[in-house]
């Protein structure tokens, strides 16, 4: 995923520079490239004015964050589990910034392919007593679980321009992805095998039904391409 975002950024930036260098026409001073830092990851963004007076700006952005989970301890009742896995967040989206008052205030809408995924594998740290014997963690088995979120629409509001009036610009945005109910999967081995399956999240957490939202806060830095 990191390589894909880097290639995307290099290709679009190269094309944008080539267009600006060889054109004094409608694309002049209407393309920017930059970096987006958000609660959903970090990555490149490219923006282009749709209309000449710039009330509408289209932007393509990618974000990515990855965290490895290595033998994290989780206490459950009288047992301690050792958890391994990973946590991914990110998105690749096409968004439209609308500046209704022709100033830095903007309303944003678009659609993103979310990279929001968790995958964990847990095993008991200690043996469990059963009468006069003890059952080892390997005999009890492991639990693997995770969830994924499907592509989602996005709505947000903010201040600043992804296509700056001068050479450099900054922007701040608060928004949310309108997500579907994620699907949670479980896979277990040995004595825990009967819980294996795939279940809609609402079977476990009722709030997924009432609040199908994934809030995000982002901060962007942009540089206008071409001559000013």
Give an overview in words.
By secondary structure, the chain is mostly beta strands. The protein has a single domain (2-224), classed as Porin. It is built from three helices and 14 strands. Strand 10 (152-160) and strand 11 (168-178) form a beta hairpin. The longest helix has 20 residues, at 2-21. The chain is elongated and about 80 Å long. The two termini are 34 Å apart.
> How helical, in percent, are the residues?
10-25%
Average pLDDT figure: 80
The Rg value, from CA coordinates, equals 23 Å
What is the CATH C level class, in words? Mainly Beta
Q: What are the main properties of this structure?
A:
8-stranded antiparallel β-barrel; 12% helix; mainly beta; 228 residues; 3 helices; Porin; two-stranded antiparallel sheet; elongated; single chain
Give the secondary structure arrangement, pairings included.
Blueprint (H helix, E strand, L loop, with lengths): L1 H20 L9 E8 L2 E9 L6 E21 L2 E20 L6 E10 L2 E8 L3 E3 L2 E3 L1 H4 L1 E7 L3 E9 L7 E11 L4 E6 L8 E4 L6 H4 L2 E12 L4
Antiparallel strand pairs: 1-2, 1-14, 2-3, 3-4, 4-5, 4-6, 5-10, 6-9, 7-8, 9-12, 10-11, 11-14, 12-13
In short:
With 228 residues, the protein is mostly beta strands. The protein has three helices and 14 strands.
